[in-house]
Amino acid sequence: MNTKNALFIINKFSGGGYSPEVEGRIIETCKASNIECRIEFTQKRGHAIELAQWAVGQKMDFAFAVGGDGTVNEVAQGLVGSPVAMGILPKGSGNGLARHLRIPMAFKSAIKTIGNHRVEQIDSMQVNGMLSVNVSGIGFDGHVAGMFAGKVKRGLVGYAKLVMNEFKKFKPFEASVEMDEKKFQTKSFIIAIANSSQFGNNARVAPHASVCDELMDVSFVQKIPFSQVVGFTGKMFSGNLHRSRFVDIHKSKKISIQLSEPTAYHIDGEAMPPLRDFKAVINPASLRILVPNKSIIGLQQKYPI
Question: What is the extent of the structural domain holding 16?
Protein backbone atom coordinates (compact mmCIF):
# COMPACT_ATOMS: atom_id res chain seq x y z
CA MET A 1 0.00 0.00 0.00
CA ASN A 2 1.39 3.39 -1.01
CA THR A 3 1.85 5.94 1.74
CA LYS A 4 -0.29 9.07 1.33
CA ASN A 5 0.51 12.56 2.60
CA ALA A 6 -1.95 14.88 4.33
CA LEU A 7 -1.85 18.39 5.75
CA PHE A 8 -4.27 19.21 8.57
CA ILE A 9 -5.10 22.91 8.81
CA ILE A 10 -6.59 23.63 12.23
CA ASN A 11 -8.46 26.77 13.23
CA LYS A 12 -8.40 26.74 17.05
CA PHE A 13 -10.95 29.53 17.21
CA SER A 14 -13.75 27.95 15.18
CA GLY A 15 -17.16 27.95 16.84
CA GLY A 16 -17.01 24.29 17.82
CA GLY A 17 -14.05 24.86 20.13
CA TYR A 18 -10.66 23.18 20.33
CA SER A 19 -9.06 20.49 22.48
CA PRO A 20 -5.42 19.32 22.37
CA GLU A 21 -6.63 15.72 21.98
CA VAL A 22 -7.56 16.62 18.39
CA GLU A 23 -3.90 16.44 17.35
CA GLY A 24 -3.37 13.08 19.03
CA ARG A 25 -6.41 11.55 17.36
CA ILE A 26 -5.30 12.86 13.96
CA ILE A 27 -1.80 11.38 14.33
CA GLU A 28 -3.15 8.07 15.63
CA THR A 29 -5.72 7.71 12.83
CA CYS A 30 -3.25 8.66 10.10
CA LYS A 31 -0.72 6.14 11.37
CA ALA A 32 -3.35 3.39 11.26
CA SER A 33 -4.32 4.46 7.72
CA ASN A 34 -0.73 4.60 6.38
CA ILE A 35 -0.88 8.37 5.96
CA GLU A 36 1.99 10.71 6.78
CA CYS A 37 0.51 13.82 8.34
CA ARG A 38 1.58 17.36 9.07
CA ILE A 39 -0.43 19.64 11.36
CA GLU A 40 -0.51 23.44 11.06
CA PHE A 41 -2.55 26.04 12.95
CA THR A 42 -3.98 29.13 11.30
CA GLN A 43 -2.47 32.36 12.62
CA LYS A 44 -4.64 34.96 10.87
CA ARG A 45 -7.44 35.40 8.38
CA GLY A 46 -6.32 34.07 5.00
CA HIS A 47 -3.59 31.87 6.48
CA ALA A 48 -5.49 28.67 5.61
CA ILE A 49 -5.36 29.69 1.94
CA GLU A 50 -1.57 29.96 2.11
CA LEU A 51 -1.25 26.61 3.89
CA ALA A 52 -3.49 24.88 1.33
CA GLN A 53 -1.46 26.39 -1.51
CA TRP A 54 1.67 25.05 0.17
CA ALA A 55 0.09 21.58 0.18
CA VAL A 56 -0.50 21.90 -3.57
CA GLY A 57 3.11 22.95 -4.12
CA GLN A 58 4.31 19.96 -2.10
CA LYS A 59 2.07 17.65 -4.18
CA MET A 60 0.35 16.30 -1.10
CA ASP A 61 -2.60 13.98 -1.49
CA PHE A 62 -4.98 15.65 0.97
CA ALA A 63 -5.46 18.91 2.86
CA PHE A 64 -7.96 18.81 5.72
CA ALA A 65 -9.89 21.82 6.97
CA VAL A 66 -10.35 21.42 10.72
CA GLY A 67 -12.78 24.20 11.57
CA GLY A 68 -16.02 25.77 10.39
CA ASP A 69 -17.36 26.95 7.05
CA GLY A 70 -14.95 29.91 6.98
CA THR A 71 -11.96 27.59 7.34
CA VAL A 72 -13.42 25.25 4.72
CA ASN A 73 -13.78 28.19 2.33
CA GLU A 74 -10.17 29.29 2.80
CA VAL A 75 -8.77 25.78 2.32
CA ALA A 76 -10.92 25.38 -0.79
CA GLN A 77 -9.52 28.66 -2.16
CA GLY A 78 -6.04 27.20 -1.93
CA LEU A 79 -7.01 23.87 -3.50
CA VAL A 80 -9.61 24.66 -6.19
CA GLY A 81 -8.55 23.42 -9.60
CA SER A 82 -5.68 21.36 -8.14
CA PRO A 83 -5.27 17.57 -7.79
CA VAL A 84 -5.10 17.84 -3.98
CA ALA A 85 -8.31 16.62 -2.35
CA MET A 86 -9.90 18.52 0.53
CA GLY A 87 -11.07 16.75 3.66
CA ILE A 88 -13.28 18.29 6.33
CA LEU A 89 -13.23 17.65 10.07
CA PRO A 90 -16.10 19.92 11.17
CA LYS A 91 -15.42 22.08 14.23
CA GLY A 92 -17.55 25.14 13.44
CA SER A 93 -20.86 26.48 14.67
CA GLY A 94 -22.79 25.66 11.46
CA ASN A 95 -20.77 23.24 9.33
CA GLY A 96 -23.05 23.62 6.31
CA LEU A 97 -20.97 21.89 3.62
CA ALA A 98 -19.91 19.08 5.96
CA ARG A 99 -23.53 18.35 6.86
CA HIS A 100 -24.55 18.40 3.19
CA LEU A 101 -21.79 15.89 2.40
CA ARG A 102 -22.95 13.62 5.26
CA ILE A 103 -19.69 14.03 7.18
CA PRO A 104 -20.39 13.18 10.84
CA MET A 105 -20.45 16.10 13.28
CA ALA A 106 -18.88 14.15 16.15
CA PHE A 107 -15.09 14.44 15.82
CA LYS A 108 -14.53 10.78 16.80
CA SER A 109 -16.76 9.72 13.90
CA ALA A 110 -15.64 12.36 11.39
CA ILE A 111 -11.99 11.42 11.76
CA LYS A 112 -12.79 7.91 10.52
CA THR A 113 -13.28 9.52 7.10
CA ILE A 114 -9.47 9.61 6.87
CA GLY A 115 -9.29 5.85 6.43
CA ASN A 116 -12.78 5.23 5.05
CA HIS A 117 -13.40 7.60 2.17
CA ARG A 118 -13.63 8.14 -1.53
CA VAL A 119 -12.73 11.26 -3.53
CA GLU A 120 -15.37 13.10 -5.57
CA GLN A 121 -15.33 16.20 -7.76
CA ILE A 122 -17.77 18.89 -6.64
CA ASP A 123 -18.80 22.25 -8.04
CA SER A 124 -17.83 25.62 -6.61
CA MET A 125 -19.10 29.14 -7.30
CA GLN A 126 -17.57 32.53 -7.95
CA VAL A 127 -19.54 35.33 -6.27
CA ASN A 128 -18.20 38.75 -7.26
CA GLY A 129 -14.93 37.05 -8.06
CA MET A 130 -14.70 35.29 -4.67
CA LEU A 131 -14.86 31.53 -4.21
CA SER A 132 -17.92 30.06 -2.51
CA VAL A 133 -18.34 26.33 -1.91
CA ASN A 134 -21.42 26.30 0.32
CA VAL A 135 -24.03 29.10 0.45
CA SER A 136 -23.59 32.84 -0.04
CA GLY A 137 -26.38 35.29 0.66
CA ILE A 138 -27.54 38.86 0.19
CA GLY A 139 -29.78 40.67 2.66
CA PHE A 140 -30.86 39.61 6.12
CA ASP A 141 -28.49 36.64 6.37
CA GLY A 142 -25.58 38.88 5.37
CA HIS A 143 -26.66 41.44 7.96
CA VAL A 144 -26.83 38.78 10.67
CA ALA A 145 -23.48 37.29 9.59
CA GLY A 146 -21.85 40.68 10.13
CA MET A 147 -23.31 41.03 13.61
CA PHE A 148 -22.62 37.39 14.53
CA ALA A 149 -18.94 37.78 13.62
CA GLY A 150 -18.53 40.20 16.52
CA LYS A 151 -20.06 37.89 19.09
CA VAL A 152 -17.82 36.21 21.65
CA LYS A 153 -20.34 33.44 22.33
CA ARG A 154 -21.30 31.70 19.09
CA GLY A 155 -23.35 28.61 18.29
CA LEU A 156 -26.95 27.92 17.31
CA VAL A 157 -28.57 29.45 20.41
CA GLY A 158 -26.65 32.72 20.06
CA TYR A 159 -27.42 32.84 16.35
CA ALA A 160 -31.14 32.24 16.94
CA LYS A 161 -31.29 35.05 19.50
CA LEU A 162 -29.57 37.43 17.10
CA VAL A 163 -31.97 36.51 14.28
CA MET A 164 -35.01 37.19 16.47
CA ASN A 165 -33.61 40.53 17.67
CA GLU A 166 -32.84 41.77 14.15
CA PHE A 167 -35.80 40.29 12.27
CA LYS A 168 -38.22 43.17 12.74
CA LYS A 169 -35.56 45.83 12.07
CA PHE A 170 -34.29 44.64 8.70
CA LYS A 171 -36.22 45.82 5.63
CA PRO A 172 -36.69 43.98 2.29
CA PHE A 173 -34.79 45.33 -0.72
CA GLU A 174 -35.58 45.79 -4.42
CA ALA A 175 -33.51 43.81 -6.94
CA SER A 176 -33.21 43.53 -10.72
CA VAL A 177 -32.23 39.98 -11.63
CA GLU A 178 -30.81 38.47 -14.82
CA MET A 179 -30.46 34.71 -14.62
CA ASP A 180 -29.36 32.77 -17.70
CA GLU A 181 -32.05 33.90 -20.18
CA LYS A 182 -34.53 35.31 -17.62
CA LYS A 183 -34.94 38.88 -16.38
CA PHE A 184 -37.23 39.93 -13.54
CA GLN A 185 -37.72 42.30 -10.61
CA THR A 186 -38.08 41.12 -7.03
CA LYS A 187 -38.46 42.42 -3.52
CA SER A 188 -36.58 40.11 -1.18
CA PHE A 189 -35.54 39.72 2.43
CA ILE A 190 -32.84 37.20 1.50
CA ILE A 191 -31.33 36.11 -1.80
CA ALA A 192 -29.39 32.90 -1.13
CA ILE A 193 -26.98 31.66 -3.80
CA ALA A 194 -26.46 28.00 -3.00
CA ASN A 195 -24.03 25.31 -4.05
CA SER A 196 -25.03 23.00 -1.19
CA SER A 197 -28.45 22.79 0.41
CA GLN A 198 -27.94 24.59 3.71
CA PHE A 199 -26.50 27.49 5.66
CA GLY A 200 -25.53 25.10 8.47
CA ASN A 201 -27.18 23.35 11.42
CA ASN A 202 -29.51 21.72 8.84
CA ALA A 203 -31.16 25.05 7.95
CA ARG A 204 -31.86 24.06 4.34
CA VAL A 205 -32.39 27.23 2.34
CA ALA A 206 -32.12 25.30 -0.96
CA PRO A 207 -33.33 21.79 -0.14
CA HIS A 208 -32.90 20.42 -3.69
CA ALA A 209 -29.39 21.78 -4.24
CA SER A 210 -26.65 19.41 -5.35
CA VAL A 211 -22.92 20.08 -5.26
CA CYS A 212 -22.42 18.12 -8.47
CA ASP A 213 -25.23 19.18 -10.83
CA GLU A 214 -23.29 22.09 -12.40
CA LEU A 215 -25.99 24.52 -11.28
CA MET A 216 -26.53 27.06 -8.51
CA ASP A 217 -29.81 27.08 -6.61
CA VAL A 218 -30.91 30.67 -6.00
CA SER A 219 -33.56 31.14 -3.30
CA PHE A 220 -35.52 34.40 -3.22
CA VAL A 221 -37.05 34.71 0.24
CA GLN A 222 -39.70 37.32 1.04
CA LYS A 223 -40.03 38.86 4.48
CA ILE A 224 -42.24 36.50 6.45
CA PRO A 225 -45.05 37.86 8.63
CA PHE A 226 -43.99 37.40 12.24
CA SER A 227 -47.01 35.14 12.83
CA GLN A 228 -45.66 32.76 10.14
CA VAL A 229 -42.07 32.53 11.40
CA VAL A 230 -42.53 29.28 13.34
CA GLY A 231 -44.08 27.46 10.38
CA PHE A 232 -41.47 28.86 7.99
CA THR A 233 -38.65 27.75 10.30
CA GLY A 234 -40.16 24.27 10.51
CA LYS A 235 -40.17 23.99 6.72
CA MET A 236 -36.55 25.14 6.52
CA PHE A 237 -35.23 22.63 9.06
CA SER A 238 -37.32 19.76 7.66
CA GLY A 239 -36.10 20.30 4.09
CA ASN A 240 -39.45 21.59 2.82
CA LEU A 241 -38.68 25.27 2.27
CA HIS A 242 -39.51 24.92 -1.43
CA ARG A 243 -43.14 24.39 -0.35
CA SER A 244 -43.33 27.81 1.31
CA ARG A 245 -45.31 30.53 -0.50
CA PHE A 246 -42.67 33.00 0.70
CA VAL A 247 -39.86 31.32 -1.27
CA ASP A 248 -39.08 31.13 -4.98
CA ILE A 249 -36.15 28.92 -6.03
CA HIS A 250 -34.45 28.93 -9.44
CA LYS A 251 -31.56 26.87 -10.85
CA SER A 252 -28.96 28.72 -12.87
CA LYS A 253 -25.40 28.61 -14.20
CA LYS A 254 -24.91 32.36 -13.79
CA ILE A 255 -26.77 35.28 -12.26
CA SER A 256 -26.48 39.06 -12.16
CA ILE A 257 -28.24 41.07 -9.44
CA GLN A 258 -28.55 44.85 -9.12
CA LEU A 259 -29.97 46.24 -5.89
CA SER A 260 -31.68 49.54 -5.18
CA GLU A 261 -29.11 50.31 -2.46
CA PRO A 262 -25.96 48.75 -0.95
CA THR A 263 -26.93 45.69 1.07
CA ALA A 264 -25.11 43.36 3.45
CA TYR A 265 -23.98 39.98 2.13
CA HIS A 266 -21.80 37.03 3.08
CA ILE A 267 -19.62 34.43 1.37
CA ASP A 268 -20.01 31.01 3.02
CA GLY A 269 -20.99 32.73 6.26
CA GLU A 270 -18.18 35.31 6.23
CA ALA A 271 -19.59 38.85 6.31
CA MET A 272 -18.63 41.26 3.52
CA PRO A 273 -19.07 45.05 3.12
CA PRO A 274 -22.45 46.07 1.60
CA LEU A 275 -22.68 46.25 -2.20
CA ARG A 276 -25.29 47.00 -4.87
CA ASP A 277 -24.09 44.80 -7.74
CA PHE A 278 -23.56 41.05 -7.67
CA LYS A 279 -22.48 38.46 -10.22
CA ALA A 280 -22.23 34.73 -9.58
CA VAL A 281 -21.25 31.82 -11.80
CA ILE A 282 -20.90 28.07 -11.27
CA ASN A 283 -17.50 26.34 -11.64
CA PRO A 284 -18.38 22.71 -12.49
CA ALA A 285 -16.40 19.86 -10.91
CA SER A 286 -13.67 22.23 -9.77
CA LEU A 287 -12.83 20.85 -6.31
CA ARG A 288 -11.75 17.36 -5.26
CA ILE A 289 -13.17 16.42 -1.89
CA LEU A 290 -13.15 13.46 0.50
CA VAL A 291 -16.56 12.08 1.43
CA PRO A 292 -17.47 9.08 3.60
CA ASN A 293 -17.86 5.88 1.62
CA LYS A 294 -21.50 5.74 2.71
CA SER A 295 -22.24 9.23 1.35
CA ILE A 296 -24.56 9.39 -1.68
CA ILE A 297 -22.87 12.56 -2.94
CA GLY A 298 -21.05 12.17 -6.23
CA LEU A 299 -21.01 12.97 -9.91
CA GLN A 300 -23.05 9.84 -10.50
CA GLN A 301 -25.70 11.34 -8.17
CA LYS A 302 -27.03 14.49 -9.84
CA TYR A 303 -30.36 14.54 -8.09
CA PRO A 304 -31.74 16.30 -5.01
CA ILE A 305 -30.78 14.69 -1.72
Answer: 4-115
